[in-house]
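WARN retry 2 of 3 for item q-0093 after timeout on previous attempt; input resubmitted unchanged.
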Amino acid sequence: MPEAQVASEAQGAPAGARLSAPVVVPPGAWDELQAAAKSTAPMSPPPVRMRESLDPFPARGKAGGPARGPSDTDSGTEGGATIAVYGLVCYTTRVPSAGYVDLHCHLLPSVDDGAQTLEESLEMARALAGAGFSDVAPSPHAWPELPNAAAIEQQRGALQAAFSEAGIELSLHPNAENRLDAEFFERLERGESRPLGSGRYVLVEAPFDSPLPSLLDLIFRIKLKGLTPLIAHPERCHEFQGKGKRAAEAVNAGALLQLELGAPLGRYGPLARKVSERLLEDDLYAVAASDLHGPVGAERWLPEAIGFLETHGLHTALLQENPARLLQGEPLEFEGQPS
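OK item q-0093 returned
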């Protein structure tokens, strides 16, 4: 009896793919698996209207077929990383960059609660590049007890050099995540807001667990300084989780909202998922971002989250066009307009 074969990159994997784990293929099954791999092309589900379905995997539970999840054979995304499972062999297809722009992640090593080592930063960067990102604006927390703007700029330059040495095609840009607190507004008065990219927008966050009744006034104060606030992950913040129209009020006051990529998949719990669905249905998000803090699981969940946006026809606006405009300091058409 012939010995079992161990699947490897040299044994029939699609070009540019790598195995997610070593797989032992029983004798006689290898030819069948190779044929399946060559004949099965990744598929991209057609866009659907948001109100028709907000299920990350819209085929689930429909008549005529079994429930479908992120690891089933026909999963795939257009322009980003593709997960394809052929029999027992799981390939992660590496694809050219889709030109996605991430305006919120904690990629710089040893500066906050994000990446703790250079190795973690490199692993996170590979996951982002593999999911289709070409540009990232790392957003370390701008807290008084953490490294200041000058130190962050030095770290960003060093990490960009490390990317070049490692062959990671990912461009880094200035950014910081600012709390809407007294310390931020003191810096704002001094012209030290640590804005995003070219300087027209500033990434801010509201409290997770407490209300922020002065939100509209705070937005107004930021706008007076010639900046537009980009509010991070509102679906996770107490102020936006009620049944009211607080998010619409914030947008109408001139703020922009950033979707956490993992929220519609339930990564932050059922309430954040429900709120993100509501804000997506109301077309209130300007951009989507990863808020990546570490490498664990990123290679899996980032393509799943991007696939959700692609399924609903939202990836071009939320991951490409709008974030690129913000990075360059260009206005968005709906900025500050009623939804």
